[in-house]
């Protein structure tokens, strides 16, 4: 009891700056020790079209984006119309009293002269900040929290801009205190400041990569991967990370491969369309045994699909991309902390096993932000694998006599280290061969490491009690919605457990078999049409997964959808 | 002709007798010798095709990339360690067909890389189809009624796209070609050398009897390579005679110099321990 559970949303036209405003509001909440989860929906265009940003605030995790809204800030009439169905029965809609032709019978309407107050505060442009001032007043947030967040957000914009925006939040705040709506019962009780961080999945990936010693990042812009590029490029000089916006995704992956061949940690990131272009080079990294770290941020396909929305439809594609048999590892973090941790692991695994490692995210994880207390405990020591500093004479880059199949790397211009990284099948020096015995030996050399890899890749995490009536299974970004749904189900007296895969490929049977065998009713939850992860389980465990809860409308799962599915069929 | 077997691998070239690739192979070795390069001083990136098979015959650091994709790999290597001598090669099909986009963008970038195009105006390894530099009307396995398109002009394209050293060599003039390669490697910036190279098997009409009487040397003709307009007109004029030598050469800041101020220390020498992200994280703090 006494649990703080609040869902806030701001809606308006693209270009009105609601993303920035939403983030400020969420940071103010987080500064008081609350957990926040921010989720944005926007169309693939710059001006016009409806944008919305929602902030879920709770006093503890698990936390995720939720459907029902307690407080809606509607910057235009359209926002009211679009989001009315999402309103909680006792929710409030803050809107500009200047909006005309509105059906005033809509429950919960709270007119505020947003634009008029903004002009008073110093400019029409501060309208959004007036609205967050109003929002803060309604939930009894201490005004100091909002002031701090505004100050920080506008710290580089000059004193005038900062002052104007501070004035705006105050104006809104005191307006609402003096003329409150009839009824609003969600109130904050925290009043002291706590240091937290609010970051997106892509920011976590970028930070993890920097921590791991990234030295070259090559990319071509594509939503929802572009924010990694935007985050890393200003760090170029300070961290000596060469950030290259290449002419296309083909060049991006090849530049990363070239850099890795020369001896540094490099990375490329893209979405499904860009990954399609990268597939030929992926196999080249494999046959040349050049370590490669890629990030694939999924969005709904096929083809251009829905660029600014979410889906998990590329798992099978990434698993099988590029011709021929070769080993790759796919890591699928479920939240920002796992993203930070697993990208570091990706660099270690890539260098240790000299293979491509692909971290898969999606728009929901990549662009949603989440509060965390710290990252430091998720740092990973660097393992750089077999790297020669002094190269002996008669060096063989692809030495077949090495037991585990992982031969030593040497880098130009080390004396004696000459080698050919060859996209053709090759001998121990890398020179071309088409000879039967050598071909077999080289294939087996590359494949030998699979057994050690299977021992080292992360095991799935299991949440909930053993022997529940219902067992859920999934990978990647469905983690938070599922964990939150489990809380709701628990309150309804329904016990559920959940296996969350962090590495669906290569498949390790032992990681899944017991959970699956012990499940009474197994449901696979996935953001795609076919149930791609379910199909992998079926193939390897020789079982049939009868229930699949699938969603492919570009939106993430909202916890209530999982709850409803389970209670309806229970 | 003097050979420098120190740069050879144990594999013997698989090219047809008389192939122009032999001339390029010898010219490269001659240039390495003249520059005093030991094997480990050279990092080369190769494409796919008869030109790419050169990767097996040169004992250097090599990367035999996929079709059309030599320049981005060379870019990655150069950015990771800008002190390396990076040389990329590809064929006309490889580098001017599927890889043409990379060519233009690499010219713009002006990295200190030397790029050699083995230009035989045909697809050799796939047994004789038209290439982007095949002349209009060229009949081949893929164009039995003759090529309809106009050919790509690599020299003119390099000049207008921002390459800072643009030359044409001829594999029948090995010493001259070797000297162009030496100049290209010494040049600080992106050096493009388009090499006329007979394919005696699949394009015999553009073989030695065609080129020998037609080529003349630009240096003998007193061409000033700093003259952009003259270089471009030489590259585009339709003449019986074929100029070889340096068309264009200027100084311009290289990508690696202007990029992140790499200075004297390549990224490969950076220490990865003790990287702190606290300052960046602070921007994300409440």
Question: What do these coordinates show?
Answer:
The complex is a heterodimer of chains A (570) and B (286). Chain A is an alpha/beta fold and 570 residues long. Chain A is 37% helix and 20% strand. Chain A contains 20 helices and 20 strands. Chain A has an eight-stranded mixed sheet, sandwiched between helices. In chain A, helix 17 (479-491) crosses helix 20. Chain B contains ten helices and eight strands. Chain B is globular. Chain B has an eight-stranded mixed sheet, sandwiched between helices. In chain B, 30% of the residues lie in helices and 16% in strands. Chain B is of the alpha/beta class and 286 residues long. The interface between A and B is large, with 75 and 54 residues.
Task: Give short descriptive properties of this protein.
heterodimer, A: 570 residues, 8-stranded mixed β-sheet, 6-stranded parallel β-sheet, 20 strands, 37% helix, globular, B: 286 residues, alpha/beta, 10 helices, 8 strands
């Amino acid at each position: 009891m006494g649990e703080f559970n609040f869902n806030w949303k701001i809606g308006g036209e693209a270009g009105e700056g609601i993303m920035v405003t939403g983030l400020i509001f969420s940071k103010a909440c987080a500064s008081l020790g609350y957990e926040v989860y921010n989720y944005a929906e926007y169309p693939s265009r710059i001006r016009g079209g409806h944008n919305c940003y929602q902030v879920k605030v709770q006093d503890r995790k698990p936390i995720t984006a939720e459907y029902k809204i307690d407080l809606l800030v509607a910057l235009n009439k359209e926002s009211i119309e679009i989001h009315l169905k999402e309103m909680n029965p006792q929710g409030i809609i803050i809107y500009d009293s200047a909006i005309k032709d509105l059906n005033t019978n809509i429950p919960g309407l709270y007119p505020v002269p947003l634009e008029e107050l903004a002009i008073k505060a110093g400019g029409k442009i501060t309208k959004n900040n007036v609205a967050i001032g109003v929002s803060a007043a309604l939930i009894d947030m201490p005004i100091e929290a909002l002031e701090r967040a505004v100050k920080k957000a506008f710290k580089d914009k000059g004193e005038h801009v900062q002052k104007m925006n501070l004035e705006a939040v105050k104006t809104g705040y005191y307006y609402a205190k003096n003329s409150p709506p009839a009824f609003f019962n969600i109130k904050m009780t925290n009043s002291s400041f706590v240091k937290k961080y609010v970051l997106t999945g892509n920011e976590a990936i970028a930070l993890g990569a920097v921590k791991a010693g990234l030295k070259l990042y090559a990319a071509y812009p594509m939503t929802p991967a572009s924010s990694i590029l935007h985050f890393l490029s200003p760090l170029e000089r300070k961290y000596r990370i060469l950030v290259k916006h290449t002419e296309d995704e083909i060049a991006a992956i090849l530049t990363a491969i070239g850099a890795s061949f020369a001896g540094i940690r490099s990375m490329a990131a893209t979405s499904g369309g860009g990954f399609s272009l990268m597939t030929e080079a992926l196999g080249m990294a494999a046959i040349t045994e050049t370590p490669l770290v890629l990030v694939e941020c999924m969005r709904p396909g096929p083809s251009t699909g829905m660029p600014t929305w979410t889906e998990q439809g590329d798992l099978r594609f990434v698993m099988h991309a590029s011709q021929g048999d070769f080993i790759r590892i796919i890591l699928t973090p479920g939240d920002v902390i796992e993203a930070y941790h697993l990208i570091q692991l990706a660099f270690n695994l890539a260098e240790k096993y000299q293979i491509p490692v692909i971290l898969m995210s999606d728009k929901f994880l990549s662009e949603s932000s989440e509060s965390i207390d710290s990252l430091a405990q998720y740092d990973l020591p660097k393992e750089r694998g077999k790297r020669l500093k002094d190269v002996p004479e008669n060096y063989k880059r692809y030495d077949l006599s090495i037991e585990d199949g992982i031969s030593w790397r040497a880098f130009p211009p080390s004396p004696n280290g000459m080698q050919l990284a060859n996209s053709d099948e090759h001998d121990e020096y890398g020179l071309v061969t088409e000879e039967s015995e050598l071909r077999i030996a080289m294939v087996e050399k590359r494949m030998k490491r699979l057994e050690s890899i299977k021992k080292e890749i992360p095991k799935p995490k299991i949440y909930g009690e053993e022997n529940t009536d219902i067992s859920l299974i999934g990978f990647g970004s469905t983690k938070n919605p599922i964990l939150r749904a489990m809380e709701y189900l628990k309150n309804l007296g329904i016990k559920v457990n959940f296996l969350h895969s962090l590495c669906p490929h290569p498949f390790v049977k032992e990681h899944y078999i017991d959970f699956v065998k012990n499940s009474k009713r197994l449901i696979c939850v996935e953001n795609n049409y076919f149930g791609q992860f379910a199909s992998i389980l079926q193939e390897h465990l020789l079982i049939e997964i009868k229930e699949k809860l699938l969603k492919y409308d570009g939106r993430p799962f909202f916890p209530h959808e999982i709850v409803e599915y389970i209670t309806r069929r229970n | 002709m003097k050979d420098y077997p120190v740069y050879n691998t144990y594999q013997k070239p698989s090219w047809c007798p008389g192939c122009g690739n032999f001339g390029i192979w010898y010219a490269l070795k001659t240039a390495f010798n003249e520059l005093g390069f030991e094997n480990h001083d050279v990092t080369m990136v190769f494409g796919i095709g008869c030109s790419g098979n050169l990767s097996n015959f040169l004992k250097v650091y090599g990367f035999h990339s996929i079709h059309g994709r030599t320049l981005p790999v060379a870019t990655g290597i150069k950015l990771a360690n800008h002190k390396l001598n990076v040389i990329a090669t590809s064929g006309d099909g490889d580098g001017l067909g599927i890889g043409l986009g990379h060519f233009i963008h690499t010219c713009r970038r002006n990295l200190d890389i030397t790029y050699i195009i083995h230009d035989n105006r045909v697809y050799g390894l796939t047994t004789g189809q038209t290439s982007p530099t095949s002349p209009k009307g060229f009949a081949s396995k893929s164009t039995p009624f003759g090529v309809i398109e106009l050919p790509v002009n690599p020299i003119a394209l390099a000049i207008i796209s921002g390459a800072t050293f643009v030359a044409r060599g001829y594999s029948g003039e090995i010493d001259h070609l070797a000297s162009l390669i030496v100049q290209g490697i010494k040049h600080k910036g992106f050096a493009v050398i388009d090499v006329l190279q007979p394919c005696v098997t699949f394009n015999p009409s553009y073989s030695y009897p065609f080129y020998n009487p037609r080529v003349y040397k630009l240096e003998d003709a007193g061409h000033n390579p700093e003259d952009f307009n003259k270089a471009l007109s030489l590259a585009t004029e339709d003449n019986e005679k074929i100029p070889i030598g340096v068309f264009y050469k200027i100084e311009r800041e290289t990508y690696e110099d202007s990029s992140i101020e790499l200075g004297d220390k390549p990224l490969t020498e950076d220490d990865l321990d003790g990287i702190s992200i606290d300052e960046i994280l602070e921007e994300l703090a409440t």
